[in-house]
Amino acid sequence: MHLSRFPRIRLAHLPTPLEPLPRLSKELGVEVWIKRDDATGMSTGGNKTRKLEFLMAEALDQGADMVMTQGATQTNHGRQTAAYAAKLGIACHILLEDRTGYDNANYNHNGNVLLDHLHGATTEKFPGGHDMPAEMERAAERMRAEGRNVYVIPGGGSNPTGALGYVNCAFELVSQANDAGLTIDRVVHATGSSGTQAGLVTGLCAMNSGIPVLGIGTRAPREKQEQMVFDLAGRTADRIGCSGAVKRSDVVANTDYVGEGYGIPTKSGIEAIRMFAELEGILLDPCYSAKGAAGLIDLARKGEFRDQRVVFLHTGGAAALGGYDFAFDHADRWVHI
Ligand SMILES: *Cc1c(COP(=O)(O)O)cnc(C)c1O
Questions:
Q1: Buried b / exposed e across 95-105, counting CB within 10 Å, b at 16+?
Q2: 17 DSSP assignment
Q3: DSSP code per residue over 134-145
Q4: What is residue 336's predicted lDDT score, i.e. its pLDDT?
Q5: 10-residue averages of pLDDT along the chain (337 residues)
């Protein structure tokens, strides 16, 4: 397979660093490395930037003058799409679904919402549980009637085109490990709309790398999450000419760390945020990367990774922290002398 056959706009800062996390590793008794996909460059970075390299190229090939996408209020995907659209000089419209019901002002206006607007995107709000893909089609028709050429990007950029970004990440990661003489026993990351894990697993299987991936769920129950990833991995493998490369058993998710629901911070996630921030100077977000890290931390404590070298794929999201300040009690950090 030959990724340069696919149209791509190279705006991500790649390769992202692959670094050891010595203080966290010591704390957990497991050797943990980090793949810094929070540092992909576009508007504070994140995993959607890799997908957008391929999605935005397809949009421009189709002559789009507007991209449209959807997500939760604090969508990182929407923010990275808005930044990409700004850079390419096309319009961006984002449909936001209120999945948490928070009436908190920062949650609704700060963090990613502020950044969406700074990049010039327009946003529209919908109640939770709405049929967002259908709503997006309606909104696209409305814009087309006004003469716009709209390219619709599914939530999270998760389709075979977007997943190519993570096939590319799989190649990049293995090549970094090979160059450094480093063996990787496991990759762990937060999984949501499924494109990240689908692309990663497809790339790693297509290379016959023998590196297993563990997705830590942030929304759906295990069976549904794994099926979503497997379906998209199958379509992604077809796309790159490796049909059948991914077996059902290659797709593994653990959904024990979702907590009350999508976008709702958990105690273990908050602990993970504090550990990464205080031990390694790295920022996670409560919705995704903190839950992924909470899974990594808990499973490490339970001995799941004994004698393994684990790579935590940091998918980004810290731009949402300003929308989640209510989740942190940090009054004890003020000192009065
Ligand atoms: C979107 C997102 C994920 C999940 O990636 P999917 O490809 O949607 O599964 C993980 N972490 C962060 C920070 C995200 O924004």
A1: bbbbbbebeee
A2: P
A3: HHHHHHHHHHHH
A4: 86
A5: 93 98 98 98 97 98 98 98 98 98 98 98 97 97 98 98 98 98 98 98 98 98 98 98 98 98 98 98 98 98 98 98 97 90
270 Cβ contact partners less than 8 Å away, ≥ 6 residues apart: 286, 290, 327, 328
Q: Cis omega (within 30 of 0) on the bond before 265?
A: no
- The one-letter code for the residue type at 166 is Y
**Contact indicator for 237, 202 with CB cutoff of 8 Å:** yes
What pLDDT, on the 0 to 100 scale, is given for residue 337? 79
Instruction: Give me the helix-helix angle, 222-239 and 195-206, nearest 10°.
Output: 50
Ligand 1: residues whose CB is within 6 Å? 46-47, 76-77, 156, 158, 190-197, 285, 288-289, 315-317
Pairwise CA distance, residues 178 & 309, whole Å: 14
CA of 335 to the centre of ligand 1 (A): 36
Q: How far is the CA of 178 from the centre of ligand 1 (A)?
A: 26
Give residue 145 CA to ligand 1 midpoint distance, Å.
32
CA-CA distances (angstroms) from residue 133 to 67, 76, 85, 155, 193? 14, 18, 20, 8, 13
| Backbone φ/ψ region at 192: left (φ over 0), alpha (ψ -120 to 50), beta | alpha
- How far apart are the CA of 245 and the centre of ligand 1, in A? 23
Distances (CA, A) of 271 to 89, 267, 275, 290: 40, 6, 6, 8
Atom of ligand 1 minimally distant from the CA of 51: 7
Instruction: Please state the pTM of the whole predicted model.
Output: 0.98
